[in-house]
Design a protein that fits this description.
This protein has about 325 residues and is mainly alpha-helical. The chain folds into 3 domains: about 1-80; about 85-155, no CATH class; about 180-320, no CATH class. It contains 16 helices and no strands. The protein has helices at about 5-25, 30-50, 55-75, 85-100, 105-120, 125-130, 135-155, 160-175, 180-190, 195-205, 210-230, 235-250, 255-270, 280, 285-290, 295-320. Helix 2 (about 30-50) runs antiparallel to helix 3, helix 5 runs antiparallel to helix 7 (about 135-155) and helix 11 (about 210-230) crosses helix 13 (about 255-270). It is globular, with a radius of gyration of 22 Å. The relative contact order is 0.07.
């Protein structure tokens, strides 16, 4: 069985290679940043098991590592070395020659992830191939490896080229690549510290909780607003579900938990389209595309976000209270 830990180890190995590339070039802050990040990917399971058995020092060391990551990012010395004129010209020439074929490996990732996940449920024996505790992650990881092979086939690149170009892209993204993980963790911290209960108390004093529509609008608006603030719907979801979704919509008004959770999460993504806090989605692309307006991506997505939010509210009204 392909345990999901194996794929985390692959990520750790890639981070090690990235750190070594930067160390060789004298980019010590960037090398240290990626080297620290190897820890949770390579030893995450061991750290968790140690914490469960009462041994706290590995988790404390990792906590110190997180603080070090913040310090390194705040120093502003992360980034990638500028391309040489020859390397830039070579990439532009290759892109012009391959044209839309460049999208084949990228599109394979979601397509194969979906196929593998569905197959794991319906095809006999597939459940023994992938980790049953993390079917989605296993499907995504296997699909990514197939996409890597497809990328090599499409570009006819050398086997080492993905390492060099992947390192260049990772350095370009810098600290922003950690935002989804960090912000999702932040949502769990907020939920554990009782932020949801505080929100429930505040909402009870502001809106008429006897109104199903008022509670639903508060839930949807809260998902969008918290996502704008924290940059990630995964961070907003546990807070809003604990504060409004569970006590008011599910327990008081009888909403269906599955449809409320699914559409509610999608509503949170409307906030992702509107916030610079979602830097890896909205700011980094503007930098990589060398756009003059750093908020150009957000401006182009704003109307879609508002329209999608309205549609999601209508869907929740129709589907969650049948």
């Amino acid at each position: 069985m392909l345990r999901v830990d194996y794929f985390y180890w692959l990520i750790g190995a890639f981070l090690l290679i990235t750190a070594l590339y930067n160390l060789r070039e004298g980019r010590y802050s960037t090398a240290a940043f990626w080297a620290i990040l190897i820890g949770p990917f390579a030893f995450g399971t061991q750290i968790l098991q140690a914490a469960k058995s009462g041994v706290q020092w590995p988790a404390q060391v990792m906590g110190a590592g997180v603080i070090a990551l913040g310090v390194l990012a705040a120093r502003g010395r992360l980034g990638t070395a500028p391309d040489s004129v020859e390397a830039l010209a070579r990439r532009q020439s290759l892109a012009a020659a391959l044209r839309n074929r460049l999208f084949v490996p990228t599109l394979l990732i979601p397509a194969l992830t979906l196929v593998l996940f569905v197959a794991s449920k319906w095809v006999p024996g597939m459940d023994r191939l992938m980790d049953p505790k993390a079917l989605t992650l296993s499907s995504l990881a296997i699909a990514s490896l197939f996409a890597l092979a497809a990328g090599l086939w499409v570009t006819r690149a050398r086997a080492a080229e993905p390492l060099a170009q992947g390192r260049r892209l990772l350095d370009s993204l810098g600290w922003a690549v950690l935002l989804p993980m960090v912000l999702a963790t932040l949502g769990g911290v907020f939920a554990a510290t009782g932020v949801g209960e505080v929100i429930a108390s505040l909402v009870g004093h502001v809106i008429p909780i006897e109104s199903r529509v008022a509670c639903l609008l508060a839930f949807a608006s809260g998902m969008v607003l918290f996502t704008i603030i924290m940059g990630n719907a995964f961070a907003a979801f546990p807070v809003m579900m604990a504060g409004i979704g569970l006590p008011l919509l599910i327990q008081k008004h009888g909403a269906d938990p599955a449809s409320l959770g699914a559409i509610g999460m999608l509503t949170g993504y409307c906030g992702t389209l509107l916030t610079p806090m979602a830097a890896n989605f909205n700011i980094v692309p503007a930098v990589l595309l060398e756009l003059k307006d750093p908020y150009a991506v957000i401006r182009s997505q704003a109307m879609t976000a508002f329209a999608l939010m309205a549609v999601n509210v209508a869907l929740m009204l129709l589907l969650c209270f049948r």
